[in-house]
Design goal:
Strand order of the largest sheet: 1-2-4-5-6-7-8-9
Order of helices and strands: EEEHEHEHEHEHEHEH
Number of strands: 9
Helix content: 25-40%
Strand content: 15-25%
């Protein structure tokens, strides 16, 4: 088992089952954190789960999570789940009110925490207030993750934003800039947020027609990479749902997932 952390998204937008994307229950046990993607924010501050439950309802998804937890009962390493909230802005309401909405959703879904996928970033200080409020509203022991990408560099909010999260991952793969640029960006983020110990490198098996994927050979190299003077958190994969023939990757089911598992230190 790897000493580094394997984070992966699972998309509710993709149809599941034979000849389609893998169900959540098929997630290999060596994946440490699965982000259930995605949840949107309505104008009134409520959460919109339409995309997450597009092909499978909440009860089915929760049942798959329980199946994974049951089969991992006697294992030391257990998969955790977060709700992935995607937005380009937060609602115009008191941060604590929105945070209570998020915490209630986490409880209702039975997840272990929240992922805040905030795009595009701005220098609005309310960003920090909202994520702080979410952290305070979640039960003790909950995890919070966030992806960041090139637009965050140079943003004065990046360092205080990243401070609020247990794990941060890069997502500079649309289009993929190449191995050297990915490493350079990774180290730039690490320098900005104060280290790479909680920073994962994001890779993608999203689409192979427009360059929005990370070549498998580079995935292996990124898994093996270790920054000088520190450690990397691990790897984030976008997504388990595309790691199937005909749904992103042209390779057999979980080729990317297995490659990451086999290549992480």
């Amino acid at each position: 088992m790897s000493k580094e952390t394997f984070i992966a998204y699972w998309s509710g937008e993709e149809p599941t089952g034979p000849e389609h994307s893998p169900t959540l229950e098929q997630t290999p046990d060596f994946v440490d954190i699965v982000i259930l993607f995605y949840v949107l924010i309505n104008d009134d501050g409520s959460l919109n789960f339409d995309r997450l439950v597009l092909h499978n309802d909440q009860a089915t998804i929760m049942g798959w999570m329980e199946d994974i937890r049951q089969r991992q009962q006697n294992q030391q390493r257990k998969t955790k789940f977060t709700l992935g909230i995607l937005s380009g802005s937060f609602p115009e309401q008191d941060p604590s009110t929105f945070a209570q909405t998020v915490a209630a959703a986490a409880e209702d879904w039975g997840v272990d925490g929240i992922t805040v996928d905030y795009e595009p970033p701005t220098s609005d200080p309310s960003i920090i207030n909202v994520v702080k409020a979410i952290r305070s509203a979640l039960p003790s022991g909950s995890i919070m993750t966030a992806p960041i990408y090139g637009a965050w560099l140079g943003n004065p909010q990046l360092q205080p934003f990243a401070q609020q999260f247990d794990y941060v991952s890069t997502m500079d793969y649309t289009p993929y800039p190449g191995y050297s640029s990915t490493i350079s960006l990774y180290n730039d983020y690490g320098q900005t947020i104060g280290g790479t110990d909680k920073l994962a490198i994001g890779v993608s098996c999203m689409t192979f027609t427009n360059g929005n994927h990370t070549p498998l050979d580079d995935v292996k190299k990124l898994c093996a990479y270790e920054p000088s003077g520190g450690n990397k958190l691990g790897i984030m994969l976008y997504t388990l749902s595309y790691d199937a023939p005909g749904h992103g990757s042209p390779y057999p089911l979980f080729t990317y997932t297995d490659t990451i598992h086999d290549s992480l230190p």
